[in-house]
Amino acid sequence: MRVALLAGGTGGAKLAAGIQEEIGADLTVIANTGDDIETLGVHVSPDPDLITYWLSGEIDEDRGWGLREDTFRVLERMAEVGAPNWFSLGDRDLAACLYRREFLAAGGRLTDAAAQIARGVGATATVLPMCEEAVRTKVLTEVGRRDLQEYLILDGGKPEVHGIELDGIAEAEPTAEVLGALRAADAILIGPSNPVISIGPILAVPGMREAIASAHAPVLAVSPYVGGQVVKGPTNKFMEALGRPTTAAGVASLYAGLIDAMVVDEGDPDPPPADVPTIATSTLMDGAAGRVRLARTVLDYAATLIDA
Amino acid sequence: MRVALLAGGTGGAKLAAGIQEEIGADLTVIANTGDDIETLGVHVSPDPDLITYWLSGEIDEDRGWGLREDTFRVLERMAEVGAPNWFSLGDRDLAACLYRREFLAAGGRLTDAAAQIARGVGATATVLPMCEEAVRTKVLTEVGRRDLQEYLILDGGKPEVHGIELDGIAEAEPTAEVLGALRAADAILIGPSNPVISIGPILAVPGMREAIASAHAPVLAVSPYVGGQVVKGPTNKFMEALGRPTTAAGVASLYAGLIDAMVVDEGDPDPPPADVPTIATSTLMDGAAGRVRLARTVLDYAATLIDA
Fold it and tell me: Is residue A152 part of a domain?
């Protein structure tokens, strides 16, 4: 089964790793690049890299980002000579981001840089940036307009969120690779990532929703809520900013008209409306076994929708 | 005594460290930037950095470049994802070069980046790039025209040298800081670096020779030849390319009309002509004590020329 998975942060990345275990190279992940940031002389793609490191098995699971047993000697030294050091990046993490920056500076495509990096570190699945154009997610907060990384890191994700803006989104378009993956997919999955700042920018790329809708594959969303809570990250603040309940039903409302079915946590207090075919399972991905178990459940459910 | 020292590679850098021991912040080093190279997304300034690391005491004396106990995790990882890896750079070494690149990209001056880095790593003396403009030393060899780093690293410094070219030299000019240091100096020293590829580019900057000649300070050159040999580097190949003897006399011939005196090694078989006041001493800088001893000898001799 060929699968196209829309994903952003940890939840989607973990599901990607589980699905890769099951179908390997038949998985293509379409990753949010709204979090991308040029800093310290490198081009950081937080979501594509997070996904890549989950796929390569190098992710630091405890920290939730970066590579296991990475060191931080470059940033420590840059701080010594006067560089800002609010944005942390391990040495081997930085290496890929420096390579990406040079690859782009030499006229290369973000898509090809991501593919090269994923190959280099041993991922089996394909990781595709959602677009080539620079889209930058800005957060409108009670203390002002923030770059997403500033909000998450400098502000600690604490200030109330009034909304988001996606700078550059109007000029963006899905790449040929993204359109090809959606066309070729037997199932299109929306991963359990933040629906607003991780999946939202992907769906906001002009032409993306149309490409998904016109694909022959069923579209299945996995709720990021586990037992009514998000496992990681400030999802609720963003859901509330959009006036959505912080539940599977709230997630379903954001994907209305796009999805054919949902997988939600069995402990979710507020399931999607009856017109959305839904299965409830434990969506907590505890360790490799947990990731594969949810992947298997999602793929099996998707298979039934293909036949339907 | 305020000293301006022209320096390039290891010999000049070691003398700079010895002089810093003696006069501290009264030392300003004017460093060759003809070796600079933009690679791997960073701006490497081999000579200014080598000098800075000798001044900060961080230099890896055994290897002859880079920082003691540095690691190479970034370059190893960049190679894994597909970057070229012929040019080696440690992680903390790279950090300064990445900082420099960003500093320049943000509109900063090479001079200010070098000062910031030297301050950051604890150098007491001032390190000044010879100019702001990009000057790039090219080597004409029996196997073709080479970037200097390509010749030294990829070619191992082995092919015969027919000459050098200094790309961009016509547009270069000494910075205000360099001119100020030469004007303010009580003594101007030419360090025991390669006269052709280390000192040559500095003296070739339009206006540099005039600025040195018009300064009130005596100009004293220290021969890089120790017992008729160079301690490190392919100096002879470049001296021969210019048809100069590989001796103190050969060095003196390149500085003719510019220097008031020389310090040569007592074992040099071919001292400068009689019209160049010269003292002979052991110019081998063996350890910190050896660097300070030569520094002391050079400064004492310079003092006699100031009085004269």
Answer: no
